[in-house]
Amino acid sequence: MHIGGIYFSLLMPLSAGATTVITDIWDPQAVVPFLVDAKITYLGGGPAFQFGVLDALKQQSRHFAELRIVRSGSTTIPQLLVTQVAETYGVSLGVMWGMTEGVCSFTRPDDPPGWATVSVGRPGPGTETDLRADHPISDARPARLYVRGGSLCLATLGRDDGQLTELSDWYDTGDLAVPDGRGGIRLLGRAVDRIGSTFMIPVNDVESALLEHAEVQDVALVGYPDGHGGELACAVVVPRADAPALRDLRDHLTGQGMTEWYLPSRLELFTALPRNEGGKVRKDLLRQWLEDGQARW
User: Which domain of life does the protein's organism represent (predicted)?
Assistant: First the structure.
């Protein structure tokens, strides 16, 4: 039911007269030879899948000889992915944001290089976005993103409670965003995943910087109560050969010019992060673990 799979695996190839290459399992080491042999020209997938392909290509010393377009989709895109796509494939990473409920925005070929790090692009035809806030909008104080358009579904049906909710006008996406300066939007995360109170920590910027640390293989920044009605940031890290110390991570971020209140005050190490079928980190599970110490994955 995910809209990305329907669009890019079925509708787009059919409309372009192209062939879709699909694998029924996700094992990057096994999938990469299959994709190389298929001579793919377009590669789409969320950040976790793109990183998996890049790592497998490097380990197997393979490359995609005819690849021309690489596109990813998520609320936020790590800077490291944008850099590695450009270095490995020689093309700029394109990104899109969308919802199964409908509507989408996407970057264009005329956007500046590296634009995927600061924007999910402009809405498609027939789609409108509205940023709502009762304060001046900034990265520290983003707005709530509302959308409407011809592709928005007419209603949603609760999976567990069976409740039907009609969508008659603007739809609250649950995302936090700011204008990107080119008629599009820069997403700063989900409202439920925000860290901070009046001012929020730019979670994607911090995670992107931490991914550049030599001892960090994967990372998620998650909020936890400070015991005084506020909230602090915890870095949940999957380490490489050597595990980093919290001080190392804080020094790394400070060296990139980040202010004190962006820095994590807690570090937890895991062998893997919990992800859903779309490759997105289940931060709700991580928050629960930080609260009660019980892993649910």
Answer: Bacteria
